[in-house]
Amino acid sequence: GAVVSQHPSWVICKSGTSVKIECRSLDFQATTMFWYRQFPKQSLMLMATSNEGSKATYEQGVEKDKFLINHASLTLSTLTVTSAHPEDSSFYICSARDLRTSGNNEQFFGPGTRLTVL
Amino acid sequence: RKEVEQDPGPFNVPEGATVAFNCTYSNSASQSFFWYRQDCRKEPKLLMSVYSSGNEDGRFTAQLNRASQYISLLIRDSKLSDSATYLCVVNGGGFQKLVFGTGTRLLVSP
User: Fold this and answer.
1) In chain A, residues 62-91 whose CB comes closer than 8 Å to chain B
2) Which of B23, B34, B98 should we substitute to test contact with A (largest number of A Cβ atoms within 10 Å)?
3) Smallest CA–CA separation between A9 and chain B, in Å?
4) pLDDT tens across B45-99, in order?
5) For chain A, which residues score pLDDT lower than 50?
6) DSSP-derived secondary structure letter, B93
7) Is A105 on the interface with B (CB under 8 A)?
8) B50 to chain A nearest CA, in Å?
């Protein structure tokens, strides 16, 4: 099946620093990648939809200047959490749609990145 | 009202039991439906898509009722390894977007 990787798998940083998370589709091309956030005991919440070569579409309430998304190629999207604060501590998960099977809306998920901001 | 609603559980069942989870969704325009499984501190993994006619995959059976906007998942002969959180997922608000329920936690005991 389609494989999506994320790096790093976990990160601890000081308040005020920026953190970059990478999401890669390893064996397929993905024109669309999605970024989610999951707080403890809550569901995955979509943050933004990232389309290759164009600006990301952010969900209501998600600050685009704080969560910078770049989708420069068909296999890589990055999420940068700028000036991170403790309330940004969460599990960040990306997903990607395979061009070949995009008709069924299935998304393949990366293993997630656990961010802890001190 | 949440777009996708699930009973959070937990459902505590013994091995071998049959257990059913339900889910309701609010967007009548939704076209794709899934059940995902999520283990603690891991990413969600697709368990099965849900088709209008209902579908089965081994011990797992999914049903969709479009009129009632209701999806179900039945697990027969529960195994210890079935212990996880089961997420009801629906596409909504546009062709690509998936909306996740909060999940139903299942604990299967020996």
Assistant:
1) 91
2) B98
3) 10
4) 999 999 888 899 999 999 999 999 999 999 999 999 999 999 999 986 555 688 9
5) none
6) S
7) yes
8) 11
Query: Is the CB of B49 less than 8 angstroms away from the CB of A104?
Result: yes
C-alpha distances in Å from residue B104, one per residue of A40, B23, B37, B54: 14, 9, 10, 20
Q: Which two tokens stand for residue B107?
A: 């604990």
* Separation CA B49–CA B69 (nearest Å): 16
What is the CB neighbour count within 10 angstroms for residue A72?
10
Residue of B nearest to A51 (CA): B96
Q: Write the secondary structure of chain A as one string of H (helix), E (strand) and C (coil).
A: CCCEEEECCEEEECCCCCEEEEEEECCCCCCEEEEEEECCCCCCEEEEEEECCCCCEECCCCCCCCEEEEEEECCEEEEEECCCCHHHCEEEEEEEECHHHHHHCCCEECCCEEEEEC
User: What is the pLDDT at residue A57?
Assistant: 92
Segment B23-46 shows an average pLDDT of 91
pLDDT tens digit string along B6-17?
999 999 999 999
First to last CA, chain B: 37
Token couple for A72:
């420069």
Question: Is residue A34 less than 8 Å (CB to CB) from chain B?
Answer: yes
Main-chain dihedrals φ then ψ at residue A51, nearest 5 degrees: -110, 135
- State how far residue B40 is from chain A, nearest Cα, in angstroms: 10
